[in-house]
Amino acid sequence: MKIGIIGGTFNPVHNAHLRIAEEVRDWFGLDRVIFIPAAVPPHKPIYGDLPFIHRYEMVRLAIAANPHFTVSDMEQQRGGTSYSIDTLRALRRAYQNDSLYFVIGSDSFLEIGSWREYQGIFGCCNIIVVERPGAAVTDPHKALPVAVAGEFSYLEAERQLSHCSGNSVYFRTGAPLDISSSAIRELASRGRSIRYLVPDAVEHYIKEKRLYAHA
User: Fold this and answer.
1) pTM > 0.85
2) How far apart are the first and last CA of the chain?
3) Is 62 within a domain?
4) Residues of the chain with pLDDT under 70
5) pLDDT at residue number 174
6) Cα→Cα distances 84→8, 103, 131, Å
7) Does residue 214 fall inside a structural domain?
């Protein structure tokens, strides 16, 4: 089985997240895509300290109609800081006979050298790098941290980095949807419409719970 993994704070989850997940599912023939909300992200705090349960519930509502999508609370259950390497190692143990594809934005890939034990990520799974607005990866091999660049060969025609473990890093470009959670929070805080930026069920949940309304 081929399994995609998408992490994030999902504060809130929005249509660009869902479209990215659907595109990579289609491109790579994935059987399942697991959304994993971060409990305690290592690089930045959760805006507004929004509790995990709300972010998890918004993802659950957003993906309910897609049989290929599922959501996991494994980072909340594990406790502590939500390091990607810990999550990927746990998934590697749980899905020993399956192919894992970790989906990240190009902005995150360009900063992967600052991640905890990032070297181990490349041996755990394949990585799919999806272009994000303002963060194009023009030269994939040069974008690698120097410490691991020697572990890769670059297949230029496929825009693919092949790791010595047998895993690969794939790069997908296109017309990325310029939707951000921060812009959605700002609109919601001012009582403006967020329709078509998030699924209807998520919009209703945000309004019902007054998640981003100013006190």
Assistant:
1) yes
2) 47
3) yes
4) 175, 215
5) 72
6) 10, 11, 20
7) no
**Cα 105 → chain centroid:** 7
Q: Cα(203)–Cα(188) distance, rounded to whole angstroms?
A: 9
Instruction: Tell me how far apart the alpha carbons of residues 136 and 22 are, in angstroms, rounded to a whole number.
Output: 20
- What are the CA-CA distances from residue 162 to residues 127, 149, 152 (Å)? 10, 11, 5
101 touches 4 (CB < 8 A)? yes
Range of the domain at 143: 2-177
- Is residue 196 one of the residues assigned to a domain? no
Q: What is the CATH number of the domain that holds 91?
A: 3.40.50.620
Among residues 167, 170, 70, 172, the alpha carbon closest in space to that of 121 is found at 167
Q: How far is CA 179 from CA 158, 182, 196, in A?
A: 28, 9, 10
The owner of tokens 């049989």 is 67
Q: Give the distance from CA 82 to its chain's centroid.
A: 13
What's the confidence (pLDDT) of residue 215?
44
Structure tokens belonging to residue 60: 């659950």
The answer to whether residues 45 and 212 touch, using CB atoms and an 8 Å cutoff, is no
**Regarding beta strands 160-163 and 152-155, do their DSSP bridges make them parallel or antiparallel, or are they unpaired?**
antiparallel
Structural domain count of the chain:
1
Residues in the chain: 215
Residue 187 lies in a domain: no
The closest of 188, 171, 80, 86 to 131, measured between CA atoms, is: 171
Q: For residue 51, what are the contacts with CB-CB under 8 A and spacing of at least 6?
A: none
Instruction: Give, for 15, the enclosing helix (H) or strand (E).
Output: helix 15-28
